[in-house]
Amino acid sequence: MSPYPNADKLSLALSFEELPTLADLESRWRDLELRAQPSFYTSWAWIGVWLELLPPDIRPRLLEARHDARVVGMAVVVCGPPRKKFGFTICQTAHLHDTGRPELDILCIEHNDFLLDRDHEAEVRSAMLDYWLGHLDGASEVILPGLVGKGWPPDALGSNRGRMKRVDAADRSYAVDLRAVREADGDFLQLIRPSMRTQIRRSIKEYGRCGELVLEAAASVGQALAWLERLADLHQARWVGRGLPGCFSNAFFTRFHQTLIARHLVDGGVQLLRIRAGENDLGYLYAFVRGGRVYCYQSGFDYGLIEKHARPGLVAHALAVEYNAAQGYDVYDFMAGDMRYKRDLATLDERMTWTTLRSPSWRFECEATVPRVVSATRRLRQAWRQGRLWGQQRIGQAITQTSEGC
User: What pLDDT, on a 0 to 100 scale, did the predictor assign at position 372?
Assistant: First the structure.
């Protein structure tokens, strides 16, 4: 444990060490949660299941900050695999609540951050990041996935602000203000564009020919797991039909969410909804719930239930928005991804940022230079070929003119 007296108004002790037992870590994490403002992804509900199911060759470490012996900041960080390009190792990597391995990071963490005491967020975040960057054990690239908004403010880098290069990759993120839905007497369709409102109402009318549209919430773990299996079947059919594997083809992904549902359906952290048209399953929605926000994570729909005006996703989300507004939640979050249905249904335009921090290295300079050299070489070859063709044409014209003069 090292003192860190430079944080504004705080004297912090920071540590970077092997994880304690999960039981010990859970106790400390949950205690800090009571004084923090975690998203679902930084709550123990997500972090605990993730740590429990990671393969044994992944060795996470705990970054922790204390003030007067009280924990005020925690994070789980992982030394990821070397990043390679052009057949060469570019750098060693480090990750926040992620691993750097695509088969494990298929979970797609968002709303990511350190877990921070709400009274000292900025000071503790800066101190923790500064300390972590000083203990990277050879890693020269730090990945901060799924940060809210524009990511961490520039001053979060502290003393590393001028030394580390920061690259932000932003992604659009959309949501619905459920308070506005309640103000509209629960009629969500009043809040969206007239053309989209007409499409959804027409689709609802067509589905009504199959029977009454009913939305249900899973009432038991067994029911929720059965619905997840049905959701996965519908999801896979859609994506495999497009020539893509679908996320439920990944065993780690499936096991993670089965475990998450088993642990947190009863405490309200997980929500499984089924939408039926008569006796037919129109679709399923799987979401997380934390702090008044519903994180709509995954879905599966039957696109062949009707022939005309089939919009199962739009109908299902519209019904789910009204259901969650009636439950008293504040935000229905479609999360990151600039997809048309999100733009059509959203009333809030948000943003998510993936940040990469890099220490100075000639390898990064080479990595940036090679594509420019390749591009310049291609342009030169193209220009040479065009010039050669032009020269051949001129020679041909001269020969033709000479022949005609004979």
Answer: 58
